[in-house]
Input
Amino acid sequence: MSTSAKVAYEPLNEQTAITLAVKLNLFDRDAELHCREIGDGNLNLVFHVTEPATGHGTIIKQALPYVRVIGESWPLTLERARMESEALQIFARYAPEYVPVVHHTDEQYAITVMEDLSRLKIVRTGFAEGAVYPLLSTHIGEYLARTLYGTSDFALGAEARRELALQFHNPELCKITENFVFTYPLIDDESNAVETGLSELAQELWSDQKLLLEGAKLKQHFMTSAEALLHGDLHTGSIFASDEETKVIDPEFAFYGPIGYDIGLFIANTLLSALARQDDTRDELLRHVTNVWDVFTTRYTQLWQQDNQEYFAGVPGYLEYQLQHILKDTVGYAGSEMMRRVVGLAHAKDIEAITDDAKRLHIKSSAARLARDLIVNRTQYRDAQQIVRALEQADQGVEIGN
Ligand code: ADP
Ligand code: MG
Output
């Protein structure tokens, strides 16, 4: 009989994080180091180890065997650390400029040691402070096209794609998305956080049979469609940026899913920040919505034409069909994401920060009406410009029509 030793796992603390950074030769043995736990996410520990004398730093991210903000009553697989570190390394093959360098991983300890990006700012925070990040959508469009095309059947061939998909069986994290993005926001679930002034609208949405049907279809497509290796949680809290640079972090929700999901999440969170903007920089955020789609389609088309394993790739109309299909998914998933940020558990920080009640409620109901249209009428959208027009109509209280 074999006795398997219990896997050693221990959460790090600021002292043991420093010891690990030194052991990995990331700093000189005699360097004077500081460490702070800076995790502001919901799930994991993030240690920032720095050497004040040189300004060098490193990041040690560690998964806990439970959800950080809830505690031990909500256990969650440590496997998510492996998902994150392996996804970061795969995305780096296709888009190295846009992901942090991984220095070291340890599966037992659920650790990823990576490049310190503290020179940049989390886009969600920057957007709430009024930043526009002029290159953001060009970089994200490139990142999306290269990682999503690169891990698709078209680039890899079916055999290699299926092999890679096995590595990213990620049921526990997918279940969180299935519940908190797709199911709970569309029903009267106790996890939803609906502010009082919005409860009538929420009741209306929850009894909207058309919305439930289209929401159900989007959820099923999310669960069954293994098109490419997705980031899986590409909201603006997963992007670091400056005016020159963009880096995508935190792909612990990575799995093989529909390409439009990643694009839709970026668009939805940008739309929410745009709605929260009261000054004339709103248009610059809306330009990110059209530009990310333009850059994505241009680069995707180039990659498709350069190197494609699919026998039928050159059949006239096939690429156009694929792009149309991705657009339809993008629109629908942008709707699902916007809806959950208004009536679900996790809200948009910049909208919540608006203290004028009437203004905040107006923005939230515009977002919910837009979200409904994106979900229900997703096949009517022909380009990203139409999404922007629908946002403007929703914001002006005009009936959204395509
Ligand atoms: P979680 O998985 O718990 O959501 P994140 O990966 O989003 O954790 O990280 C939480 C926070 O830690 C980020 O918002 C950011 O402030 C900080 N952080 C994460 N990775 C880095 C990094 N590579 N460089 C600098 N700060 C980071
Ligand atoms: Mg995370």
Remarks:
- The pocket of adenosine-5'-diphosphate (ligand 1) is lined by residues 38-44, 46, 59, 100, 114-118, 122, 249-250, 252 (CB under 6 Å).
- The chain has 15 helices and twelve strands.
- The mean pLDDT is 96.
